[in-house]
Write a structure and sequence with these properties.
This is D-aminopeptidase. Keywords: Aminopeptidase, Hydrolase, Protease. Its EC number is 3.4.11.19. Belongs to the peptidase S58 family. The protein is an alpha+beta fold. Helix content is about 20%, strand content about 25%. The strands form three sheets. A five-stranded mixed beta sheet has the order 1-2-3-5-6, covered by helices on one side. Strands 4-12-11-10-9 form a five-stranded mixed beta sheet. Helix 2 (about 105-120) packs across helix 3 and helix 5 (about 275-280) crosses helix 6 (about 320-340).
Length: about 375
């Protein structure tokens, strides 16, 4: 049955297991929603072989089509089926919320975003331009019956409503929820994870927050911040007589939000550092993995109906940008660990399941 619960999926987060990353301090929630105005909602499908869902990220509470945040995308490895990134890179803005779901539900989620935009802007495609829906995906097929095409427009709308309609949307559920329901990571149960870092610019506090959809990594190659290697209980690299590791496949989507003033070029430079965090946890962005980052800033917005010939945008002094590079790397690393630490057991298609990292950590069997 679908669920739109936004409270945490279990009490565990990365820091409850001592898995803090880097020297910068987290925001009050240690979540992407530490960036003021950003909200997250989930719709989770949990019905036998159907283990999937939708996650919605709203950059601000206003009309995104009319008030477009500056945005950028960066593709580390492009084995993916995301929609809308080409226009984000060309025009440098977002004009819809971001939806995350499984690979074969991208089109359905995009249609839901178009309907959502038209409902608030009846002139779309008639008196003004069309709209660019942004949907990103990972393949949850091993645990979810992806061929069932179970995600509907109504499920996507429920995730959008959950993000927009409740104060609880500031508390981001992590683990096996929303789009993360059927995801796997390093042979463990994966899913949704989040983290944030506090920044100070010109004496004022800002935040950079990250949300990941973690569905990547070879079993046995997960690395914790202290250097421990953590294989899942069923992983036995010595069982491969050829000495060849299995190919890395899967995907990871990294969504970054900040209220620091960045232009499109600077934002792309910042989100590229997601790759540092992914490498730290043990990924090398293999041939079969779609590793994609998308970021936006709420500090710079472009009005759809702007009449002036020129507009003013602020940008960061690039002698200060290393702070954001560091925050992006650390928050991405911790968000992946957060997804793993929070994930609870899921039994899906044909009885398939994945072990949970929390069980290995509490048993003390990591090496």
């Amino acid at each position: 049955m679908p669920s739109t619960r936004n409270s945490a999926d279990g009490a565990s987060r990365a820091r409850s297991f001592g898995l803090a990353c880097g020297r910068l301090k987290p925001g009050p929630r240690n979540a992407i929603t530490d960036v003021p105005g950003v909200r997250v909602g989930h719709c989770t499908l949990d019905d036998g072989a159907v283990q999937t869902g939708v996650t919605a990220i709203l950059p601000h509470a206003g009309n995104l089509y009319r008030d477009k945040p500056v945005a950028a995308a960066d593709v580390l490895n492009g084995f993916g089926k995301s929609l809308g990134l080409m226009q984000v890179e060309e025009l440098g803005v977002l004009e819809t919320p971001i939806l995350l779901t499984n690979t074969l539900s991208v089109g359905t989620a995009a249609t839901a975003l178009v309907r959502h935009a038209i409902a608030g802007n009846p002139d779309i495609g008639r008196a003004t331009a069309t709209v660019n829906p942004v949907v990103m995906e990972c393949n949850d097929g091993p645990l979810n019956d992806i061929q069932a095409l179970a995600v509907s427009e109504a499920h996507a709308a429920s995730a959008l409503a959950a993000a927009a309609g409740s104060p609880e949307a500031a508390e981001v559920a992590s683990g096996a929820v929303g789009a993360g329901r059927g995801m796997s990571c390093f042979g463990f149960k994966g899913g949704i994870g989040t983290a944030s870092r506090r920044l100070k610019l010109d004496g004022a506090r800002h935040h950079l927050g990250v949300l990941v959809l973690a569905n990547f990594g070879r079993p046995g190659e997960l690395r914790l911040p202290d250097g421990r290697r953590v294989p899942p209980p069923s992983s036995d690299p010595s069982s491969d007589p050829a000495g060849e590791a299995a190919p890395e496949k899967g995907s990871v989507i990294v969504i970054a939000a900040t209220d620091a003033p960045l232009d499109h070029r600077q934002l792309r430079r910042v989100i590229r550092r997601a790759g540092v965090g992914l490498a730290r946890v043990g990924s090398f962005w293999g041939h079969g993995s779609g590793d994609i980052a998308l970021g936006f800033t709420t500090a710079n917005r472009l009005g759809h109906d702007e009449a002036a010939d020129t507009v003013a945008l602020r940008m960061l002094n690039e002698r200060r940008i290393d702070m954001l590079f560091e925050a992006m790397a650390d928050a991405t690393q911790e968000a992946v660990l957060d997804a793993l630490a929070a994930a609870t057991p899921v039994v899906g298609r044909d009885g398939a399941t994945r072990p949970c990292l929390r069980d290995v950590l509490t048993s003390g069997s990591s090496s």
